[in-house]
Design goal:
It comes from Natronosporangium hydrolyticum. This protein is an alpha+beta fold. The protein contains 7 helices and 15 strands. It folds into 2 domains: about 1-120, 2-Layer Sandwich (Fructose-1,6-Bisphosphatase, Chain A, domain 1), CATH 3.30.540; about 130-245, D-Maltodextrin-Binding Protein, domain 2.
Amino acid sequence: MASELIRQQTAGTLTPKGDRDYASEVDYAVERELRSFLARATPSIGLLGEEEGASGASSAREWTLDPVDGTVNFAHGLPLCGVSLALMEAKQPVLGVIDLPFLGERYTAVRGQGAYLNGEPIRVGEVSRLHDAIVSIGDFAIGDRAQERNVPRLAVTAALASQALRVRILGSAALDLAWLAAGRTNAVVTLSNKPWDMAAGIIIAREAGAVVVDADGTEHTADSSATLAAPPALVAEVVELVQTASKRPPG
């Protein structure tokens, strides 16, 4: 349903959301379609969507949705984008689905039941050193105080460039975490934490064997300031690098 909308339509009119940020017509169409479907299928559970906010019942559980994670990629014809949907409970995702329509990939996970790609089990890679790791990083900040907010991001990027095997910016947080879960990359460093961006990928990565933490190494929740994820043998080195680089004075 949602994937067909993305595959079959162009981005259409782009609605500005701030400095260098926008939503496409497809973002709104997918969100409205899924909001309507979930309201019928799970009437006791509300939904928080990136484009139109919260709706539905207030309860201990809530759907969180990014209708097109990677809108800029989508609008420019890059296939690295998809739908990200998670069910949240006590500030933690308990179910996640990431559908990448142009790549023909659907990632799924339920807490305690493992992670899957197109129905087949997946696991994180066994890399244990940054020297051998492909690390995907989140986009740089835009909008208010972007220059200030990018100081630690640039410092972390420079540190990773000097220590990791490779650094990648894929332009989709959902894809970052899904590919970590599938063992295609080895760590994720994102110095932000919006629930619609992260929640589905977090449960999928965790169920595939990754550890997901905040920037200080504590357990990741919806209130965390950053999202770091890696296999157990690698996560401490990632956290140490982020902490050290973030505190380094610019220049």
